[in-house]
Structure formats: C-alpha cells, structure tokens
Amino acid sequence: MIKKSFMLRISIILFFALLVHACTTTPEQRAQNLPAATGKSGDVLILMDSLQWKSELGEEVRKIFSPEVDGLPRSESMFKVIWVHPSKKIKLLTQIRNLVYVFALDQAGAGTRAITDNLSESTINNIKSDTSFYLVNQKNEYSRGQEVMYLFGNTTQELIHHLKRDGKLIQDFFNNVEKQRMMTSINKTVATKNLTASLKKDYQISLHFPAGFQQAQKEKDFVWFRSPETEIDKNFFIARKPYESEYQLLPDSLLAWRESICRQYIFEDPEMPQSYITTERSIPFNPVKAKQVNFNGAFGMEIRGLWRTNNKTMGGPFISFSFVNEADKHLYYMEGFVYSPGKPQRELIREMEAIAYTFSAVKAQASTKK
C-alpha cells in the first residue's frame, strides 16, 4: 500500500512538472526539441482520403500545387506533390517540410476519419457552423522548420469554392515559405561573406550568396557573380543606372536594357565576344512573362524567361527583378540565370529568387569627425 501510494504521488508530481514545463516553454524552445523536418525544397505532402483525392476536390488541390512553372525550358510543376492516404502507419511521413491535410466532413471515409479523430469537438463544430472557416496553418507541428496547413469544409462544395477563390494565395504562401527557408540558409553562409562585404564597400548595397559563388566581373555599375560546377553553372548579376522615369520600369524597356548589358559583359567565351547572351523570343509556347511585385517594400518588376547565346549553342532559364533604390536614386536590374541542360531547374531558379530578395541598401555611416 505504501509503495503504491508513493508511486501515485510521484506520477502526480511528474504530471504537474510536465504541465508547468509545457506552459512555460516558448514556441522556439519547443521547436528545438523536435526532429528536423525532412524532404527537399518544393516537396509538399498531401494527406487526403483516397476517394476525395480522386474527386473534383482532389482536382482543385492539384491545380493549386501542380501548375507548370513559367520560364523553364521543360515542363516542371510548381511543387513536387506527394499524395498519401491518411492512416496511423505514416507517422514518419508527417515530418516532411510542407504538410497539407485536406478533408470535407460530408464524405466521412476512412482517411477523413483518421484526420478528424485528432481534432477537438469544438473544432469540428466550428467547421460545421462557420462556412468562412476553412484554413489553419501551424509551424513546427511535428518537426522543426515545418509548415502544416489544414484545408477543410463542412461540405465538399464549400471547400472547393474556397480553393477556387484562394488557390493563388495558398500557392504564394508555400512559395514564400520555401523562399524564406532559402534566404535563411543563404544569410548564414560564411564562405561568401567577402562578396557581401565587397558590395557594401563598393556599391553601398547588401546581397548574400550561397557557398560556391565567386566574383566573375566588376565594373562601375555592373557586377557578375558565378558558381560554375561540373553540370550546373549558376550566375547572378547586378546592373544599375540613374532613375529618370517610371517608363524605365516597363517590361520592354527592361528587356532592352538587359540585351545591352548582356551584349556588353556576358559572353559564352570571353575570348569570343561575338558570342553573347540574349533573350530567347522564338518559342511561342514559352514567352517571356513579366509581372509587378512588391520587392522588399518597393514597387518592382519580375521577369521570367529563357536566355540563349546568340549562336544558339547554350541556353536556360532566368529570373530578374527591377526596382528603384531610394538610397542612391538608381534603377537596379538583378538577374539570376542558370545553365543545367537536361536537369530539373525549378529549385535553381527558386535559389536565384532567394538571392535577389536578400537585397538591402546599406545606410550611410554617420561621420564621427567633429
């Protein structure tokens, strides 16, 4: 009896100790105790009942996560979608970096029940009573560095309505998540700190680069960085000129500027300046596409397309961002382009985008002289 009472008291003490620990642990501290998220950049795991996956609801989910990426030489979907029927046997898969649960309560198959059995009664009641309540996202739910999203509805048609209306927002959310992950990794790279320091000193701007990049060429208003590997050649260049008119930010004006930059500085072979990089415009089903973007708080223009050498011996995708840097009143054109024939290039272009978004203007240091 004494032994049993003692063990009961120990159990109660441990329970309250764990409860206090859970209440005082911050989300950051909790995340550090989780295993690192698995999977590659662009992987999205969809947990969804097999019948719903094969239905119109599944088709809407695929439209969100599997559209073709603009500006690539071959067809590549925006994300690598991995569909799994929910069950208790897939616990390890739930540690993947991007996880999406999808269910509608009017089709209570085994997969849907496997998801809803883990939800509280109040949550289920909210889904049934509030037709605007269809999305919840959670960071670090099962692993560190993970994004989990729940997409749900009381009825299948309600959920389809929300996905059709907000599919682009969901798309942008996960694209931004992947970009931010890359930016965090790039910002932590020690091997290229000298490149960042050089830009700060000579151009009063800041950019960060992944390991492997080195400076290839430097002029007064142009600098080119390159990471040449055996099968992949990654390039990033920056050009600037005084800002004079908003017309300079029109796509045609930017592409004309791009042509002059590449013809002057970027050659297939430096010893053969007659072979230079140009914009590929002869493929009707893969045109150059431009769109307005918010570039780190400033009005910007994003352009995606294909490049090639003028003698058509090399080519690949590029992405560029143009904006006015208020710190020096100059128009900036930044482009990342890659050469990787026969290989997937979606994530290479995503990396070029992440590099561009590490941009910031360096504030002038106040003089210490009296």
Helix content percent band: 25-40%
User: Based on CA inertia axes, which overall geometry fits?
Assistant: elongated
Extract low-pLDDT stretches.
1-22, 366-370
What is the architecture of the largest domain at the second tier of CATH? 3-Layer(aba) Sandwich
What does this entry show, briefly?
The chain is of the alpha+beta class. The chain has ten helices and 15 strands.
What would you note in describing this structure?
The protein is of the alpha+beta class. The protein has 2 domains: about 30-185, Chitobiase, domain 2 (2-Layer Sandwich); about 190-360, Mog1/PsbP, alpha/beta/alpha sandwich (Protein Transport Mog1p, Chain A). It has helices spanning about 1-25, 25-30, 50-55, 55-65, 110-115, 120-130, 155-185, 195-205, 250-265, 345-355; strands spanning about 45-50, 80-85, 100-105, 135-140, 145-155, 205, 215-220, 220-230, 235-240, 275-280, 290-295, 300-310, 315-325, 330-340, 360. The strands form 3 sheets. Strands 7, 8, 9, 10, 11, 12, 13 and 14 form an 8-stranded antiparallel beta sheet that branches. A 5-stranded mixed beta sheet has the order 2-1-3-5-4, with helices on both faces. α4 (about 55-65) runs parallel beside α7 and α7 (about 155-185) crosses α10 (about 345-355). Mean pLDDT is about 90; it is low at about 1-20 and about 365-370.
